[in-house]
């Protein structure tokens, strides 16, 4: 093999027409090889993209070596950069007007035929891509998303540094404080029978750092949750974590949003508005059925409980008569317009099946036809006046489809909130070029758990209650709002946080409402509560989901697309086959006896 003595001079797509005539050395993988007899063309790929290499039998000393090259061989090539012939220009390529006329070639590594075409990932299953993730990462799409993720992390660090934050690492091996998702546990070899817990977030540590006087902290932190995975959830994920002392809620929100504006501007050239609106939690739920509403389109919820308490349709009447329940609807305007219907009758029946998959009990509907004629799943059970009242409330017109849910408020919001998104996709109502950003504020402090028979913290037990609601803590906990805030981008929660409790007496009141005994408080949070005896400053913070921020800028709705080595639905790694059994010697050292799971 001919040896290339030169170091790499350029990445593939760094070369432009301005470099024509220079002798360059490029290195990478053979993406595509075409042997035309006296000419060989190789598309060389590195992390920046593809550059065409040309070998001429009469002028390239290493032509015979080039004949041996196959896809994914690792190559080093030296040659003169030249313009392509007029017929050879490829306007779809960044380097489509130039090519390297090869003078020297070195095969740095050969390669077997890969299990899929790396530059055609759309025609391979996700399972295969994840099994051979190191090959999948060579593709243009994954390479660009990794570059974007790295750039976002770089901008994040620069932003926090110039705003006076310190980057401080917190432990991975910590104490289990079970109040939320299930912890990943790590057995201790030194203290048999005892366990560390991997952090679900650095929450307690960052608050301790405020008590320690660090004033402004941030960390790009790995977090772990052993929970049943849903779509776009991973057992390990990354947070951009921040905390600030001696601040108000607007100051924390302003600093956090400033980071998002910086990321969007520097990493994607997108100018987000300086000021964005705040929407109370109650408004978000009643209008959109979600605490992370996508407001780029309409299809808002309408409460008709006051119209149907005595309408003759028992499903609606029962809901109205039950405390904490309601009847609400969505007007899908124009979805059944004659001659241009988005949904057929069969599709409407399918919507009922769709809501059952997300826990809804069913879906009632009215289809408004031309001339005021109605088709409905339930209207025949109602008085004519009740139907007229509903149509008036909906401002219904010919071609509209009214969709109804009757259940507990929580289930109605869940059902119609999901249905609203489903309809927007079907109707192509979402303008993908828009970035819709807003704050959701005034979340409930507590929610009642029927399963546990007690109030639980909706955010976490260290969230500051709304100052105006402190008088209701013991008398009416459900009425208390939290000083909490979520940043929502295009219907996804990009980040969330709150002001924290810094008064130890108030913290005790919160623990009592949550049903913790003194022993439980000491066992779970003793080290944390004790720190408050020595002076805790007012403080607050927020954590962004790095993965979700990358998703919004990478225009993907699959979280696996923005993580180098993700897990699948059952929390396993298809590439390494983790988790796997370990040697008995290892479990013996840890003092563990393995039993069959019941």
Helix content: 25-40%
- DSSP helix count? 15
Largest sheet: 8 strands, mixed
User: Strands of the largest sheet, in order across it?
Assistant: 6-9-10-22-21-20-17-11
Output the structural class: alpha+beta
Strand content: 15-25%
What is the end-to-end distance? Answer: 61 Å
Low-pLDDT runs: none
Radius of gyration: 30 Å
- 3D shape: globular
Number of strands: 22
- Estimate the mean pLDDT confidence: 93
List the helices and strands and how they pair.
Blueprint: E1 23-35, E2 39-46, E3 49-56, H1 63-66, E4 74-83, E5 98-109, H2 126-131, H3 133-136, H4 140-162, E6 166-167, E7 185-187, E8 195-197, H5 203-211, E9 216-224, E10 236-245, H6 249-268, E11 278-280, H7 281-288, E12 301-303, H8 314-321, E13 325-332, H9 345-357, E14 364-368, E15 374-376, H10 384-394, E16 401-408, H11 409-426, E17 437-441, E18 446-449, E19 454-457, E20 484-489, E21 492-499, H12 504-513, H13 518-531, E22 539-545, H14 546-554, H15 584-589
Parallel strand pairs: 3-5, 6-9, 11-17
Antiparallel strand pairs: 1-2, 1-4, 2-3, 4-5, 7-8, 9-10, 10-22, 12-13, 13-16, 14-15, 14-16, 17-20, 18-19, 20-21, 21-22
Helix pairs in contact: 4-6, 4-14, 9-11
